[in-house]
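User: I'm curious whether this sequence folds into something compact or stays loose and floppy. Could you predict its structure so I can see for myself?
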Amino acid sequence: MTTRPAPDSMAYLSVLMPVEQAVCLQDTLGRDADSLIATGNSGGRTRNQLMVDLLFERGTGVSVASGVPVAMNLVLSDETLLAGGHEAAQLQGFGPVPAGIVRRLVADAVGSDAEATLRRVYACPRSGALTAMESQSRTFPKSLATLIDLRDQTCRSPWCDAPIRHHDHIRSRRKRGTTSVHNGSGLCEACNYAKEGDGWTARPVHNHGGTHLLDLGTPTGHHYRSATPPLPAPARESEVESVLIAQLRAS
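Assistant: Here's the prediction. I'll summarize afterward.
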């Protein structure tokens, strides 16, 4: 199966298949297209156009009327998006796009029936290098779940310490909680189900410069905080290393 470009944003799709299958496919599409024309459901399309639309719908499971799902990655600053900034955005596979056109593209995407997703991408303030990206998934991807396992070690419920079986949101998705390492925790199966009961609350706590911290509220009104185990301390410099480093910096 191959595709090659055609004029006017069209393409040729070529398929090499057994002759009996090709004839059967052609006859079936033609018969169903004739049926749509006969019943007045062609929507003004020709027989060939109907056959192509039927082929697409049966091959993808997506209706032609609903549009083709397309991911178009557009990277722009918050100032360009929200504050009328003039910095150009980057369209993956194309290059820089002026700020005014970008805002119009975003507005058109939000106003259409297609699904538009805004995902925060984090960059180093000094170098501008991308360092992290927010996830829009409801479930924790394998790599993120592994990071949570390495960070939490055991169930995060206070005094539990059972092996981790579930990876779940601290602040739930229905409360606009994000699928991120900051809002994720490793829990045993029993504790994960228990926290969904009436009266239980959980929220991540910002602990600048410290280990990951979450606040757990119980139906009795008590609150307990759970911190991740500290990371191994870096090796201390020997006196010889300290002297050499000082001399190198002085030179």
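Summary: The two ends are 65 Å apart (CA to CA). The helical segments are 19-38, 47-60, 78-82, 99-111, 142-152, 189-194, 239-250.
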